[in-house]
Write a structure and sequence with these properties.
430 residues, alpha/beta, six-stranded mixed beta sheet, five-stranded mixed beta sheet, extended
Amino acid sequence: MINRRGPAASVLVGMLAALTIAAMPPASAGEPTEEEAPKVELVLDSSGSMRATDIDGRSRMSVAQQSFDEVVDALPEETQLGIRVLGSRIPVANNQALGCRDTQQIMPVATVDKARAKSAIATMRPTGWTPIGLALRGAARDLGTGETTRRIVLITDGEDTCGSPGPCDVARELAAQGTHLIVDTLGLTLDDKVRRQLTCIAGATGGTYTAVQHQTQLTSRLNQLVRRAHDTYRRTPRQVGGSSRCANAPILSPGVYADRERFAEHRWYRVAVAPGQELRASVSVALDRTLNPDYGVLLRAVSTSGQEIVRGTDAGSGRTDVLSTGLRWSDQRSSATPEPSTSTETGTETATNLVCLVVSNSFSVPAGVQTAPGMPLELTVGVVPSSPTPGGPSLGRGWLLLVVLAGAGLFGGLLTGWLARWRVAVWKEN
């Protein structure tokens, strides 16, 4: 997928995320620890329909195999990767009951032996049925449980041909278990039924759906998802429900939060910022369905009286992966109006500013694309000691500045005149 943010925006968001996470307190009991490695499992469809040659003139299976090889080569060292396939052993012509149980893990979730992993995928041949629901359930077992987020990446070209268990039902079942499991889906066809099913699977678990039309697109998206598992596994987002207005919005402490935002909705949150502190916030909205061109996401910090303080924005056109933006603000203005906020540790009141964060969007969809559920968003909030930008060098103010400028002009004029006279004298002598 193409990331349409400019370089400056990407650097800003990256700095915000890094600084925010650095400012967060160490994990306490029950929070994710840094010993646990990021875990992701690729689930590859090896059913008979993967023989179709409609992606860059090649078969869907060969395209998936090449993309997988490139992703394995670029795999972060810490990431533990597993591989599960479906429809790889029982031909469609054989018993459907057997074909609908045809899913197996060909590589365990562990530090990857790259040569072995590539060899295992290279031997796959499009063969049988498409038991997606059963494969998802098996992948969840493969990844196990823990405090950090696990990811399943499903690569398929068709809808489930077995019916039971239904893929959407399995996705809802996995989400209800509260095991920090996200399923991202990649569709190798533009079929509308496939799109609806894969969108349902991703939506139930907070994942994303992407329609793939080219081999380079598949490789890029796979790399993004695997690296996302690596980059975000240490801190599982906490679920939060934003409000429709500032007055009753939830008050957030520093951390990472997950929510969903409906189309053209404003989602409000509040953050307490004490004097001498700086608010740093960023938001990422995953675009998990086809959108009409020209859209954007806006993150604003607003005072409780409704005055906008600062904003960050990101925009795209066409189909892209994610929109991200960030902002930072510290109270260095005399006009700021502190509000009393009770300390949860001491029970006393301290003067803080309750700053409202509001996320809004300009999304719309073509006819036939569902708008529910809302788009998954991830909000990162940090509060750190303020670091005002130092003032630049100054030449002074008022009369002092005028004297400096006049002196510089006089000296420049004299120097220019002297050089001109010297050049005339040399010309006359020659």
